[in-house]
Automatic annotation (TrEMBL):
<feature type="domain" description="Phosphoribulokinase/uridine kinase">
    <location>
        <begin position="102"/>
        <end position="304"/>
    </location>
</feature>
<dbReference type="GO" id="GO:0005524">
    <property type="term" value="F:ATP binding"/>
</dbReference>
<dbReference type="InterPro" id="IPR006083">
    <property type="entry name" value="PRK/URK"/>
</dbReference>
<dbReference type="GO" id="GO:0016301">
    <property type="term" value="F:kinase activity"/>
</dbReference>
<protein>
    <recommendedName>
        <fullName>Phosphoribulokinase/uridine kinase domain-containing protein</fullName>
    </recommendedName>
</protein>
<dbReference type="InterPro" id="IPR027417">
    <property type="entry name" value="P-loop_NTPase"/>
</dbReference>
<dbReference type="Pfam" id="PF00485">
    <property type="entry name" value="PRK"/>
</dbReference>
């Protein structure tokens, strides 16, 4: 089947010629964001979220059948705008002022999870007041979105010290078993049931979590949780994943991600030899495990260089 695409406003018009009747052309208008395009094999899929208000049956174009839709763009700015537009549409459809729409963003180290989450939240909080001032408010409304990083749910160094092999525990810090997913699950359940919660952050200077450092308030309709293992389908992580209304996975080649992580280690003062050892001994095995969870995503986002 030959497929061509032409942009018409918010529609992409697909013209296809069936092999059984080469003279007959079929035109299909697909209402979707123009960026939900993969340049390889094209199949139409329906993206639906687990619970809560969303872009119900939003049709997107994906490169693989029976897999999550793929977001590809020419620049990182287009990625930010597409994701911001998506969540703004969801926020508008939320009638209950106390409800939360929680998005889990996963991906290997170096994929850009923190950057994407921060940028999308920043843009949501800039654009929401503009919209609300035009429609409902005379005063500037509160922020609509916030981030809860998974970093705050690291085990404390003292907890690693108490393990059977403390040296190995510290060397593998960042592996799934060096986090406290039960605490993360409790935090998310509290957020859903009460509409607000205090979450821990992580002090990289000290190397330990800081309790109750992040305040998620009633005004935050949209909450983005970002971290490596949020889509793992094992143990308590599976329960954590089930809380999210929508699950994103930032996809990147592992070698490219490890190059970024290596530079990050060196920038924090590690020697190149120690940084390389850290990548091969800890970061790469973690990344390989994380990549297996991509199949659990509702949306796959191709990593784009900044």
């Amino acid at each position: 089947m030959a497929i061509s695409l032409s942009q018409k406003g918010l529609y992409w018009c697909c013209s296809s010629t069936g092999l059984s009747n080469p003279k007959r052309k079929r035109h299909v208008n697909i209402r979707c964001h123009p960026l939900f395009i993969s340049p390889t094999r094209l199949t139409i899929q329906t993206l639906q979220c687990q619970t809560g208000p969303c872009l119900s049956k939003q049709k997107v174009i994906s490169c693989h059948s029976r897999e999550a839709p793929v977001l590809e763009a020419r620049s990182i700015e287009e990625v930010y705008e597409a994701l911001t537009d998506r969540l703004l549409t969801i926020a508008v459809s939320m009638k209950d002022s106390k409800s939360k729409y929680i998005v889990g963003v996963a991906g290997p180290p170096g994929a850009g999870k923190s950057t994407v989450a921060s940028e999308v939240v920043c843009r949501l909080n800039m654009r929401w007041p503009e919209r609300e001032l035009m429609t409902n408010y005379t005063e500037k409304p509160a922020e609509i979105a916030t981030i809860v990083p998974m970093d705050g749910f690291h085990l404390y160094r003292s907890q690693l010290d108490a393990m059977e092999d403390p040296k190995e525990a510290h060397a593998r810090r960042g592996a799934p078993w060096t986090f406290d997913p039960a605490l993360l699950l409790k935090c998310l359940n509290t957020l859903q049931s009460q509409g607000f919660v205090y979450a821990p952050s992580f002090d990289h200077g000290v190397g330990d979590p800081v309790e109750d450092d992040i305040s998620v308030n009633h005004c935050h309709k949209l909450v983005i949780v970002e971290g490596n293992y949020l889509l793992l389908d094992e143990g308590v992580w599976r329960e954590v994943s089930s809380v999210f209304n929508e699950k994103w996975f930032i996809d990147i080649e592992i070698d490219k991600a490890m190059q970024r992580v290596l530079k990050r280690h060196i920038s924090t003062g590690k020697t190149p030899d120690i940084a390389s050892w850290r990548v091969e001994y800890n970061d790469r095995p973690n990344a390989e495990l994380i990549m297996t969870s991509k199949k659990n995503a509702d949306l796959v986002i191709r990593s784009v260089d900044l």
